[in-house]
Amino acid sequence: MKQIIELRDTEKRKMIAETFGISLANLSQILRFKRNGKNAEAIRKMAQENGGIKYTEGNEPSKVKVLDSHGNVTNIINQ
Predict the structure, then answer these.
(1) CB count, 10 Å around CB of 44?
(2) Engineered SS bond to 57: which of 2, 7, 8, 23, CB 3.0-4.6 Å?
């Protein structure tokens, strides 16, 4: 299950990066849960407190198409 914190405000991103003494590239990696340094959780929390939205991918139901012998869709099943 992938997680991401989206923070679009560039000024707030810069402020968080300066507060923790990290680069904007490193901040991006932390907000995408690709890096887990000693301050990662505090950085993610600060991002959410400053308007960041946490998304979790993989919770959407998947659709399965049922085909007949000619390849035509006869039914769609939500799982």
Answers:
(1) 20
(2) 2
Element at 50 (helix H, strand E): none
Helix (H, G, I), strand (E, B) or coil at 43: helix
Q: What is the mean pLDDT of each run of 10 residues along the chain (79 residues)?
A: 91 97 96 93 97 82 85 86
* The token pair that represents 75 in the structure block: 């039914």
Are 21 and 77 in contact by the 8 Å Cβ rule? The answer is no
- CA nearest 47: which of 6, 1, 11? 6
Strands (DSSP E) contained in 1-79 are: 3-6, 53-56, 63-67, 73-78
